Structure prediction request, 630 residues.
Amino acid sequence: MDHSHSLFSEFPPVSTQEWMDTITRDLKGADFDKKLVWHTNEGFNVQPFYREEDLVGLKTHGELPGKFPYVRGTKQNNSWRVRQKINVCEKCLGAAHEKAITLISQGVTALDITFDSDAVTADSLATMLKGIDITQVEIHFDTCVMSAVKLVEIYVAYVKEMGIEPKRVFGSINFDPLGHRLAHGKVLENLADRYAAVMTASDYLPKFRTIAVNPIYFNNAGAYIYQELGYALAWGNDLLAQLVEKGFSAEKLGKKISFTFGISSNYFMEIAKFRAARFLWSNIVFAYGEKCPKVCSNNEPDGMERCASKMIIHAETSQWNMTSFDPYVNMLRSQTEAMSAVLAGVDSLTVMPFDTAFKKSDDFSERIARNQQLLLKEESHFDKVVDPGAGSYYIENLTDAIAEQAWKLFLAVEEKGGFMAEVAAGNIQAAINTTNTSRRKALSSRREILLGTNQYPNFTEVAGDKIEEPFLHACQPKEGTPVLDFNRGASDFEALRLATEKSGKHPKVFMLTIGSLSMRLARAQFSSNFFACAGYQVIDNLGFDTIDEGVAAAQQANADIIVLCSSDEEYETLAPQAQKAIDGKKLLVVAGAPACMDELKAQGISDFINVRSNVLDTLRHFNQQLGITK
Prediction:
């Protein structure tokens, strides 16, 4: 066999124009931009195909893993820390320690320990860390803002007492008064001094990070990807600028900042986001005169040189798209989110338990969340391949496009006085809340899909008592207070369905299927999914020979709503017949948007459902009609 020629040398190259000519013919006159170009919420368009020529000129393309500007990762492997949360109070200290030991034995390599303020003592810390090798397991702390310096000082004293080499201690404290303001509206004065105090307290531990930037808040409030990244950069840059003025070097500050991002279900876009984040942040820090060489060696004990311009990223699966109904679908969402994060090279990852939206997580849900990561690491071996998206024409172009949009937002914030000034003015909160409202509106009309909530719901599911009291109420922002709106995407549909369930009524929707076999089946399926979103009982049928037969069956089933499912052409005669047979005793709904709709409305037939209907508003209307809500 002759191996002297490449396999593909026998095939002539195909130009972009040839591809476009073929696509244009296949479209048969349809508009290319409207039919095939994805107009994203991120402010740029995604083409239906990319070619090698589309890589030319991309600023984010071309370097190797571990090399400035770190698009392909800050290290030369793809190891990441499996991270899980533990809450510690004075009375639950023993149980919390036992849980920590168990988690480590089950694959967790980073503990996220939240101390209640009354538990921030030397004895509590020593008890909590007993038997834990903090040079092997990263320790990340959280506590109230006022106790942060004390906790860092206690931890430093613990490291000294245990005789541990300080350079072998990795981890962080989530000191984040800015995030507290975004979420709760609480204003703390002298922020730069507070950050400086925490920085100084941690001097003994050079690899322990004490400045937290948490764009996870934006993600959980429904932000678009470019907003989460753009505001994260502005946030980090503002802290850099203010602390440089306090006398800290950019090199030192860069090694003390950690970022926590959320992960949405936009799979490829999230991969691109993390790649763009490292690229942009490294250039920001380098602009401050950061002294770390552009190519850093990996000679640290854990194989990671923590140079100042390297963005250290912790990622958490999103809570905005989690649901209370059909909650096991949350596992599917968080699994793809976790995949995109680890393929993008994050440093550590928390998969939120699937029941986070409606109850305090338990051993089962936490074990599932932990195992979701372990499957990716130990069975799929995602830790063995560095940046597999590199070279993909699609992902490389997404990375560049997201970087451009995020950078524009970053510059806009800087021009208005910086991140802190914009938070104080409430402008950033308002922008994110506007996005939240826009996305929930898109969900209400199914322009954005949330599986199990506004599309293909579990028909027979009831919440019962599974939703715990603190999770029952919507997270409405305080009136007049510029805070983020953490209402999840599903919150409006869940309130609708809970209203149905708690009303004590059990509305029945009867599918009166008649006429064209294909159309009646398709429209019955559409209508069944439509009304099930409100928790109504759906009664489907194979078909009836006459309207009178169908109406009689609906009355016998004690239906509240009768949905006429047929073809557009047949509605002109069938709909008036159904209206006459029902005689106002039931609600009549026509499935579709027939050409004769105006004529039918003139005859008093007012309710129609179709793909253009706003599902949420329509179902709220029926809840009112049925006396479920006022």
